[in-house]
Design brief:
alpha/beta, 366 residues, Rossmann fold, single chain, 6-stranded antiparallel β-sheet
Length: 366
């Protein structure tokens, strides 16, 4: 089993800042030569930033909008969220020359690219969900000359379309390989298919009209949760293999009825004591005692002073991913790991509780 490098924060300097729309910005970071390997990324991945608001440390993940084929500058997009402390601070206060604590790239929102591929990438984006998809589009256009892409992009109105000019530029340059279709909530297009919200019916109609080939097709979905649920349902009804549907979440689904401060109760007859949990990180072992009905492994490790990686603590990113190599555990929620990863022993430690007296969790196998 090969191991990947551990996610780490480094101090990066803001090299550029561009206002994309009235409530969104694009931030560029200069990557020192010594850190180039650490910040090498795959299209579709994200960065986690430490943002300090009134002395409180907030961690927020933002997708990379640049392509790994353009290594000179690493760029992310940040859209101000109503009531969002971190996004508001970044959009209103950040300036070129300032420094930010930035974690190395993470995320599984991608598929392997190869110059010989002849694929059709169908992307559904909503609002700032365009950010990782733009990185995918730019990279596929250059890395796979025989592949093509179709983008369905939902926004409230034309003024809210992030990367509108860049998408138009790419569409004109690659007219035979890139199709871009805007769906506006308050649109006035003669074709009603391009007006309103992206419902199950609309997603199905868009797919049926514009994805009629029998080529090797991959689907990427990123945006507000209702839209992603609708598109996923439509694709599954159309018979699309789930393994070809890639979804990127940054907030826990609103339908979840599991609260973070209420651990999942232990079933009667199951292990209900205090487990000895061995945490392996950077080749070193740390022994923790964690009650079966107590804190998640991540929280216990943080309380013990371990610098374990995390971002959302909401089961939607893979930053705290580790592998269980001994013992039994149970996760409260999981919106990030695939079925194959779970079967291979991987867990989100922010959601993981011991279910046997001895557990070993290896962060080096992430």
């Amino acid at each position: 089993m090969s191991t990947a490098r551990m996610a780490r924060f480094h101090t990066l300097t803001v090299s550029s800042l561009h206002r994309e729309t009235v409530d969104s910005i694009v931030i560029g970071f200069v990557i020192p030569p010594a850190l180039r390997a650490d910040y090498a990324f795959i299209q579709g991945q994200y960065l986690t930033l430490k943002v300090f608001v009134n002395g409180e440390e907030l961690r927020r993940s933002y997708s990379i909008c640049s392509s790994p084929l353009d290594p000179d500058e690493l760029r992310i997009a940040v859209k101000r969220v109503e009531g969002g402390r971190a996004s508001t601070a970044l959009v209103e206060k950040l300036q070129p020359g300032m420094t930010v604590e930035v974690m190395t790239p993470m995320g599984n929102f991608h598929t392997l690219l190869h110059t010989a591929n002849r694929k059709h990438y169908v992307c559904f984006a909503g609002g700032s969900g365009i950010t990782p998809i733009l990185s995918i589009i730019k990279t596929v256009l250059r890395a796979e000359p025989n592949s093509r892409l179709t983008l369905f992009y939902g926004n409230t109105d034309a003024d809210r379309i992030i990367f509108r000019s860049k998408l138009e530029e790419l569409k004109q340059k690659h007219a035979d390989r890139l199709g871009v279709h805007h769906i506006l909530t308050f649109g006035k297009d003669e074709d009603m298919l391009f007006n309103g919200l992206i419902t199950v019916e609309k997603a199905s109609a868009l797919t049926s009209r514009f994805v009629q080939d029998n080529t090797d097709t991959e689907y990427f979905i990123c945006g507000p949760e209702p839209m992603m649920v609708n598109v996923s349902e439509a694709l599954e009804k159309l018979g699309v293999d789930k393994k070809r549907i890639h979804i990127e979440l940054f907030t826990s689904p609103v339908s979840s009825d599991v609260k973070k401060d209420e651990p999942k109760p232990v079933e009667a007859g199951a292990f209900n004591g205090v487990a000895e949990v061995k945490v392996i990180m950077d080749g070193r072992e740390h022994l923790l005692k964690i009650p079966a009905n107590g804190d998640a492994v991540l929280d216990a490790a943080l309380d013990a002073g371990l610098d374990v990686p995390y971002a959302c603590k909401g089961a939607v990113c893979c930053t705290c991913k580790a592998r269980v190599v001994e013992g039994k555990v149970e996760m409260d929620m999981n919106y990030a790991l695939t079925d194959d990863e779970v079967a291979d022993g991987y867990v989100l430690t922010c959601q993981t509780h011991p279910r046997s007296a001895n557990v070993t969790i290896d962060y080096d196998q992430h």
